[in-house]
Amino acid sequence: TPGEVSGPAVVVELTARNDSRETADLDSAVVTLTAADGEYGIGTTAGPNTPLAGDLEPGDSASGSYVFMLDPAADRSVTVSVNYSAGEPVAEFSGKTD
């Protein structure tokens, strides 16, 4: 339910920086989480979910956080994929959950 953070979940916090000369629209940003075993984290609006949104001007940064249900959540290798706009390259980040 909204606001619930006590279950098995992963919170992904990220910062987007616009190093281009064009304004970037973050309203359609898509962030996904996949565990190394192929299990997908299920995106939820629970907890500190504050997705990237709005226009990001050249030279500016914006922060967002995403909550993914993943059971078990602790001590798992995961990959987070970020695509701020359709047709743009996807950034991937890999690491291990706490």
Write the layout of secondary structure elements.
Layout (H helix, E strand, L loop, with lengths): L8 E9 L6 E2 L4 E6 L6 E3 L10 E2 L4 E9 L7 E7 L7 E6 L2
Antiparallel strand pairs: 1-6, 2-5, 3-7, 4-6, 7-8
Task: Provide a descriptive summary of the structure in words.
With 98 residues, the protein is an all-beta fold. It has strands spanning 9-17, 24-25, 30-35, 42-44, 55-56, 61-69, 77-83, 91-96. The strands form three sheets. A three-stranded antiparallel beta sheet has the order 1-6-4, with no helix packed on it. The chain has a three-stranded antiparallel beta sheet with strand order 3-7-8, with no helix packed on it. A hairpin with a 7-residue loop joins strand 7 (77-83) and strand 8. It is elongated. The chain starts with 8 loop residues before the first strand and ends with a strand.
